[in-house]
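QA checklist item 7 of 12: single-chain prediction sanity check.
[x] sequence parsed
[x] length recorded as 346
[x] structure emitted
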Amino acid sequence: MRDPAPLARFGNLVATGLLDVTGDPAALDSSGFWAVCADFEGRLVCARFADVREEPVPAPGEWRGPAVGDWTSSPDRAAYTAGVRRIREHIAAGEVYQVNLCRVLSAPIAPDADVDALTAVLARGNPAPYAGTIRLPGHGVEIATASPELFLRRDRRAVESGPIKGTARTEAELLEKDYAENVMIVDLVRNDIGRVCTGGSVTVPDLCAVEKHPGLVHLVSSVRGELRADAGWPELLDAAFPAGSITGAPKSSSLRIIDALETAPRGPYCGGIGWVDADRGVGELAVGIRTFWIDREDGMLRFGTGAGITRGSDPQGEWRETELKAARLLAVAAGRRTPLNARATS
C-alpha cells in the first residue's frame, strides 16, 4: 500500500507539495509556509510546503474508526486516581501548586486509515477553532486535532497565548477550583512570555472568560505581549513550551511529577500543532489537546485526555473530567453521527 501524499490542513487552508522537513525552529523565521508539530517530549517537526490554498474541508468520506469500547487507557482508572492522590501529597508538601495529569488512550486502526479522512469527520461532528491535520507518513507524523486552545499566535512582534483551565458540561457546573486554576496558569503563562517580550508589554486582556464548545464549556484567558527584537520562534518556543495549561505550576516541578506518574508518552498530545507563514511573519500554534494520532509501528490510533489536579481535587471527579473531555471525540471518531448540541457523557 502506497503512503498518501504529505499535506497539512488548518481550517480552510490546505498545504501540499512537500519541500523539506527539519527539526530546527530557526527555519520558522526563514521563508515559506510551514506546518509545525512539537511533541510534548520535545521532538519538533517543521515541514515546508510549496502550494498553499484555500479549500473547504471535504465532506466525510471513508473513515473506519474504533468503536468506543475498543479503547484502552494508560494509566487505567486505579493508577490514575492513585496519581491524583500522590499529586495532592506533593501539593501538601509545598513542592507544587497544580499538576496536569494525563492518560493516553489507544485502539487498533485499519492499516489503510487516512488521518485526513478523520479530519473531515471531526470537522462535522466536533468543530473547533484550531482544527488541523498534518500528514507526513514518511516522518512518523499523522495527526488530526480538534483543539480549542491557542498555544501561541504571532503577528510579527505581537504574540498571544490563550490558556484554557476549567472544564464542565455547563457554566453552572464550573467550580471555584476551576477559576483558581485558570488564574494560576495565567500567571505562569505571563512569566513564560515575559521572558522574551519587552518590559511592561505583557497584558491579560481577558481573564476566565466562559467559552462554549460542543458538549462542554471552558474557562479561557488571553495573554499578550510584544516580542523583543532579538527574539524569534526559537526563543519563543524555548520560553513557552510546553504550555502551562497542560503542565502545571511551577512548571519545572510539574514536569518532574508528570514524568514519574504518567505511564505512556504524550507525543503530539499536549504539544504544539499549527502553521507558520515565515514570509509574512505570522503563525498560529494550538495546544495539542482533543488530538488523535496514528502510530504505524503498532497499528494504533491514539488520543489523550487529562485534568488539572489541585489540593482540593477529588480523584474520582478528576477521572470523570478526563472522560467528559474524551467522550464526544471518541464517539465522533467511531463514525457515529453526533448532533452538534449533544452533551458529552462520562
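[x] summary fact logged: Confidence is low (pLDDT under 50) at residues 337-346.
[ ] second reviewer sign-off
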